[in-house]
Design goal:
Layout: H1 3-7, E1 10-16, H2 21-25, E2 44-45, E3 51-52, H3 72-80, H4 95-103, H5 106-109, H6 122-130, E4 132-134, E5 137-138, H7 145-154, H8 175-181, E6 186-190, H9 198-204, E7 211-213, H10 214-223, E8 229-232, E9 239-241, E10 244-246, H11 257-272, E11 281-287, H12 311-314, E12 331-334, E13 342-344, E14 348-349, H13 352-361, H14 370-373, H15 383-386
Helix pairs in contact: 3-4
Length: about 400
């Protein structure tokens, strides 16, 4: 096994909220043309018929208000441009029209095409250029948060495409349950008790030992107590605590993007500063879905799931068989064993998270969803012998030039 894989003992996932690839990392195509970002050829029509081009005018806060619609029917409009015919093809031409429906303001609707210039996101863009950036990481479904995050935990959303709580159905189990059964360690670090998602409530019912706060994550890093698999949730809302106000740092519109930049840097630096932890850890930073914000890459087809969403639950009048992915999101894999300027073109979605963790720590398990069984993995334990290009932790010696952020 290559030394980077041989030393790997910890996989950490930080999943942020509701930003598209073009919006956050699209500017990097000007730095590295292998990165599939913004070009001058891209545009979207507004409701007057004018073609609106992407512009590097995104603000940290105050711009995407009201929140862009990212429920299933709105995402259908964004991807297909309003075409509902049987033979339709995705064209990614409905973003401005979709955002117009939120406020009925033509000029404001055009802001959905704004993206961040590289210098406004120094943490995220630095990590993307210094480690491995994924050109083709997509949300698991063309819909909202809860069902997309379910794919990261279970490899399926059990047929749900909305924000309602879901029922976990046998034989599929969370990746955390699988790890515990196989005598491995895992933990979900939610920010605090005020800020946690519905799927965390689902998972918490019978396995309280799986949970810790973000404060505990930082302590576990510093003390060398990190479990083999960690999943970190950001702070989803502004709220008061005994020690003062906690500001939302999930980057969900219209929360402050700079607060999320600090969170990403803090997670990275707590791993980076521990000299024993850093060589043994891979950190994946990504977003649960695109949040209704423009991206130009057409989501591909994928293996259908065991479950389907009936026409009366999708809001479109059409059944959804979970046989195509959602909109592209930013995703970066970080390790001291990854060469700088690595660009990955293989297709991934959030089912790749449990697929990777299961394969690396447990091995094969046939009782997984069809989507997870067919998902590509971002850490391939057999890559050294099967296909060296699949091993992203490919360096023969560990890097000593990895970035440091002042936090």
């Amino acid at each position: 096994m290559p030394p980077g894989l041989d030393q790997l003992k910890h996989i950490v996932v930080l999943m942020m909220e509701n930003r598209s690839f073009d919006h956050m990392l699209g500017s990097l195509s000007a730095v590295d043309p292998r990165i599939d970002g913004i070009t001058t050829q891209l545009s979207n029509p507004d409701t007057t018929g004018a073609q609106i081009k992407p512009q590097p005018l995104a603000n940290f806060q105050g711009q995407l208000n009201p929140d862009p619609d990212h429920h299933f029917p709105a995402v259908d409009l964004q991807i297909f441009g309003g075409d509902t015919s049987a033979g339709r093809a995705a064209n990614m031409q409905g973003f401005v029209k979709s955002y117009f429906n939120q406020r009925r303001d033509v000029k404001h609707s055009q802001m959905i095409m704004y993206y961040f210039p590289q210098e406004k996101l120094p943490v995220l863009t630095k990590l993307a250029l210094e480690f491995a950036v994924f050109n083709r990481w997509f949300a698991s479904i063309p819909g909202p948060t809860i069902c997309n995050r379910a794919f990261a935990h279970y490899g399926t959303s059990f047929g749900r495409v909305d924000m309602n709580p879901f029922d976990v159905m046998e034989p599929f189990k969370s990746i955390y349950s699988r790890l515990l059964k196989a005598n491995h360690t895992a933990k979900i670090y939610y920010y605090d008790t005020t800020s946690s998602t519905m799927e965390v409530v689902n998972l918490l019912q019978n396995q309280p030992q799986l949970f810790g706060t973000y404060k505990q994550f930082k302590s576990d890093c510093d003390k060398g107590l990190l479990p083999e698999y960690s999943f970190i949730e950001p702070n989803y809302n502004d709220h008061d605590t005994d020690s003062g106000e906690e500001v939302a740092n999930d980057q969900h519109p219209d929360h402050d993007v700079q607060a999320g930049e600090f969170l990403i840097a803090e997670v990275y630096m707590h791993i980076r500063r521990n000299k024993k932890l850093w060589p043994n850890t891979a950190l994946l930073v990504l977003y649960d879905e695109h949040g209704g914000i423009y991206d130009h890459v057409t989501p591909p087809a994928c293996t259908a799931d065991k479950f389907s969403a009936p026409a009366n639950s999708t809001g479109t009048g059409m059944e959804f068989k979970f046989d195509r992915l959602g909109v592209r999101v930013p995703a970066i894999l970080i390790s001291a064993w990854i060469p700088p300027n690595t660009v990955v073109d293989r297709v991934f979605d959030h089912a790749s998270i449990p697929a990777t963790v299961n394969k690396f720590f447990i091995g094969d398990d046939p009782q997984r969803s069809p989507r997870e069984l067919n998902a590509d993995v971002f850490i391939e334990p057999n890559a050294g012998t099967l296909d060296a290009k699949r091993n992203l932790l490919s360096l023969a010696t560990m890097r000593d030039d990895c970035p440091v952020f002042d936090i």
